[in-house]
Write a structure and sequence with these properties.
single chain; 156 residues; alpha+beta; 2 domains; 7 strands; 42% helix; elongated
Length: 156
């Protein structure tokens, strides 16, 4: 399982393979030593039970797809529709239908990734866990308050 996370001091992105049992990582930007502690189920089975970075048990799932690529497809579909709408409405609607079909195919094929509410680390390649649901604003709000308190104590 690949884990992508951010340094809590400088926000530099780092990536590790949690199945290898890495215990520590040095931030490439600020040099801070970051401890990583994947559990046995993460290392051996790629089954997510605790976050390897912060040891939280609160996750949400989302599709592991590049948002910029999705936005580019939407912009291209809208532009194609607007260009063709005055010339041939059938082709213009066909462009929108093709974009919708592409969206359905990509949604069906792209796997999920799991994101930790507490540290925003994302886990790629974990075994599918139906107990982990989509993003929940109430749960995220609880961790946002914790983040603000931690940030104030580090700054002050």
């Amino acid at each position: 399982m690949n884990v992508t996370f951010f340094c809590d001091r400088c926000m530099a992105k780092s990536r590790i393979d949690a199945s290898k049992g890495v215990q520590a990582l040095t931030c490439r930007k600020c040099g801070r030593e970051l401890s990583v502690s994947p559990t046995e189920s993460v290392r051996a089975e790629n089954r997510l039970d605790r976050c390897p970075v912060c040891e939280s048990a609160y996750f949400y799932r989302e599709k592991d797809f590049n948002a910029w690529a999705g936005g580019a497809v939407i912009i291209a579909a809208i532009t194609g529709f607007l260009v063709m709408a005055g010339r041939n409405i059938t082709i213009a609607l066909g462009i929108l239908m093709a974009a919708a079909t592409l969206d359905l195919v990509v949604y069906a094929l792209v796997p999920f990734r799991y994101v930790c509410y507490k540290c925003l680390a994302s886990m790629h390649g974990a075994v599918k866990n139906p107990a982990i649901g989509p993003y929940d604003l109430g749960t995220a709000g609880r961790f946002a308050d914790d983040y603000d308190e931690r940030k104030r104590s580090q700054d002050g």
